[in-house]
Design a protein that fits this description.
Layout: H1 7-17, H2 27-38, H3 43-53, H4 57-66, E1 78-83, H5 86-90, H6 93-104, E2 117-122, E3 134-136, E4 139-141, H7 146-155
Parallel strand pairs: 1-2
Antiparallel strand pairs: 1-3, 3-4
Bound molecules: FE2/S2 (inorganic) cluster.
Residues 83, 85-88, 124-128, 131, 133 line the site of FE2/S2 (inorganic) cluster (FES).
Length: 157
């Protein structure tokens, strides 16, 4: 069965289109909408979005493959993104990443067997003054230490 947005997502889609001079300019916001709706941006989702916006599927693929924001494979319930850029590196991001890999028993880009966590290493999250920093789904966690990570992960429902 072909995929399609829910009625609520379709309404949001039409509201987004009204904000842009032409359909193709709404590609990134529509991909965010597709991520919320489908979780994973599969080739089928890319084709669907391309059809909605009247753009070639290859254009959608170019954008999806450029940004880490649009997962092409199923991710865990919690996506942990650890900044590994200069300020965070100087403040111990390497230790944080090693700790998370051992604690979760996964490597970078992998998901735990129970589908609870996905671990990613990313570029600057824009909070360099509170390095080292990670983002879990939409929330930031700053001034990280291994002990703080234990607290954070234990607090997640
Ligand atoms: S270098 Fe890590 S948030 Fe900027």
């Amino acid at each position: 069965m072909a995929i399609s947005f829910s009625s609520q997502a379709l309404e949001a889609f039409h509201q987004l289109l009204a904000l842009y001079p032409d359909k193709s300019a709404a590609l990134i916001p529509v991909l965010h909408l597709a991520k919320r709706e489908f979780k994973t941006i599969t080739p089928e989702v890319m084709s669907y979005v391309a059809g909605l916006l009247d753009v070639p599927p290859t254009r959608v693929m170019d954008v999806v493959s450029f940004y880490t924001l649009f997962p092409r494979e199923e991710e865990g319930r919690y996506v942990i993104q650890v900044c590994a850029t200069l300020s965070c590196s100087l403040m111990g991001a390497g230790t944080i990443i090693d700790y998370l890999q051992k604690k979760l028993n996964i490597g970078i880009g992998e998901t735990t067997a129970d589908k609870r966590f996905t671990l990613k290493k990313v570029e600057c999250l824009g909070s360099c003054g509170t390095a080292p920093v990670m983002q879990i789904n939409d929330d930031y966690y700053e001034n990280l230490t291994p002990a703080r990570i234990d607290e954070i992960l234990a607090s997640l429902p």
